[in-house]
Design a protein that fits this description.
TIM Barrel, 210 residues, 8-stranded parallel β-barrel, two-stranded antiparallel sheet, EC 5.3.1.24, alpha/beta, 10 strands, single chain
Length: 210
């Protein structure tokens, strides 16, 4: 079954709908962003909710701060979007006992040598669209035929696809490329706010393909 992550959650209502709809992961952005939240807010939004698993999104956060926020917000997964090295990923896994995902913006095969070094240090890779000056949340898709290249670079590592997904295109992605998981944010928003009906429709479209 395809794993679903809804990211950039900022209200308890959206968290509750995600949980009730059976998604696998709920994402909270701690990096500077229009969707940024604090550990205290995450605890409030997700109070009393044991599942889905909580994912924290970070960009070049100091190591000690990662551990602190991870504990405060009761995170299950660290999703790293910056220049975090394989050594940092491995160290974070050991120190926290939690999953570590590494995100890459898909640019071309000049990344290949560096990406191979992450094998064995991360639990999942997340592919997103390259846009200068943005670490994610672009709302645009990338060339999905690049997915197989990343699979070959990181064998045995779960692969999630982000970048411009919505209820209208996720079915094609799943049918043709069969990623382990999908990650959506702006594709389930209206005017920058999570839209409950769009969330439910996206989840339904994914489950129809499973």
């Amino acid at each position: 079954m395809t794993q679903i992550k809804i990211c950039g959650l900022k209200t308890r209502e959206a968290v509750l709908v995600a949980a009730e709809s059976g998604v696998d992961y709920i994402g909270f952005v701690f990096a500077q962003s229009k969707r940024q939240v604090t550990a205290e807010e995450v605890l409030k939004f997700a109070e009393g909710i044991q599942t889905p698993k909580r994912v924290g999104v970070f960009v070049n956060e100091p190591f000690d701060s990662l551990l602190t926020v991870g504990d405060m917000a009761c995170l299950d997964v660290f999703q790293l979007h910056g220049a975090e090295t394989p050594e940092i990923c491995s160290r974070l896994k050991r120190a926290s006992g939690k999953q570590v995902w590494k995100a890459w913006q898909v640019r071309g095969n000049e990344q290949d040598l560096a990406i191979r070094e992450y094998a064995g240090t991360i639990d999942a890779c997340l592919l997103d669209t390259f846009l200068p000056g943005a670490a994610g949340g672009t709302g645009q898709t990338f060339q999905w035929n690049e997915i197989e290249r990343f699979r070959s670079l990181l064998p045995g590592v779960q692969l999630f696809v982000a970048g411009g997904l919505n209820s209208g295109n996720v079915g094609e992605l799943l049918e043709k490329y069969k990623p382990d998981g999908v990650d959506v944010s702006s594709g389930v928003e209206t005017n920058g706010v999570k839209d409950i009906e769009k969330m439910r429709l996206f989840i339904r479209k994914v489950r129809e393909r499973d």
